[in-house]
Each structure stands twice: as structure tokens, then as C-alpha cells.
Fold this sequence. Notes:
Elements: H1 5-67, E1 69-70, E2 73-74, E3 77-78, E4 82-83, H2 87-107, H3 113-121, H4 130-141, H5 144-150, E5 154-164, E6 171-183, E7 186-200, E8 211-220, E9 223-226
Antiparallel strand pairs: 1-4, 2-3, 5-6, 6-7, 7-8, 7-9
Amino acid sequence: MQRAAGPQKRLGHLHNNKVMKGKYEIFNDIAQSRRHNNRLVYSCLVLMIAVFAIAIYFVVSAHERANNNAYVLHGGQRLPMVPIRDAKENLEILCEGHVQNFHELFFSLEPDLNLIKRNIEEKALFMVDWSGNRLYARLVEKKYFHDVVMRDYHYFVELDSIQIDYATYPFPFTFYGKQAIEKGKSTTYRNLVTKGHLKKAGITPNNLNGIKIIDFEVVDNSDLERR
Length: 227
């Protein structure tokens, strides 16, 4: 009986070895699976970091390009982008364009009260501080725009020059120009000399240049010759 137990014992050891080997294989598979998952996670993290870095690079590059481009508005519409490499030239284009556009919106008038209000209230007044609002309120109180409509007058702004002193901030400016007023078959001319200061402001949908006119006033609006 004792001799017969020998082969059975060896069979038991073989069975146990197979079981242990199977367990080790399962553990090895689990470890390999974990390593594979870890590599996958690390790869995803590296890819995300790379994409994030590339995105930052393009955002910074776009910001630098935007700083080197001037956006000048005309009649409330953005003109084609003009590439500028010189920051001073960029500033001059923005400031002069801002001043000219404001005067065209505020002082070029058609005998259409809705159009006048739209150009001034929805566009020009966003380009100037309280001084422009005060001037507009005073003209409305005097029924200045109402008279333009009732008399069927057409006002056009003619620019002579814009002088801006960039050595002082806020930048003082003086606008020299004329108002041509068509009255039927005749045309009356008026001086249009204004002054104020320019300061940097936040860029908004209503003020894409990011510049604001402050302390605005009309210096001379006297009559000239009639044609």
C-alpha cells in the first residue's frame, strides 16, 4: 500500500505544478496588460501635451501677427488688413483712421433721421467719451438734425489734415477739414476744425480699433464761400 502511493504522489505534484504555472501565466498576463495600459495612458498624455503646446504656439503667433496689422474702419466697416511691421506706423494708421471715421459718421449727414441716428448713436458715440455724447445731446436739443431732414440738406466731410502729437499721452489731435452742404442747386462750405485727445481702450465689437476720443470739442464751424 505504501509503494502504490508513490506514483499518486508524483501525479499530485505534477497537478500542483500545472496549477501554479497556470496562475503565474495569469499573473503575467495581468502584469503585461497593466504595462500595456500604462504605456497607452502615457502615450495619450504625451500626445495631449504636444497638441496643447502646438495650440499655444499658434495662438501666440496669431497674437503677434495681429499686433503687426492695422485694422482701419471706414463707414463702420473694416477695411482689408494692412500688414505693418513698424509699431509706430501701426499706431499712426489706427489713430488717424479712427479720427477720420468718427468725423465722417458724426458730421456727414443725409436727410434721413433714422440713418443719422444709426450712424451717430450706434457707431460714432462708441468711439468717443462723454464729450461726444454731450455735443450730440446739445445738437438734438437745438433740433439741428431735424432741420437737416426738413430742409433736405446733404452734408459731406472733406479732410484737409489730421495732426496728432504722439510725444504726449493721451495723444492730442486737431482735425482740419470742411463741411460741404448741398442746398438744392447751391453748395455752402463751412470750416470744420475740432480737437481732442486719443487714448487706448478695450477692443469691443463696437470699437474694433481699441481707441477712444476724449475731451472732444468743435473749434471752428464757421461759414465759408458759397458755390
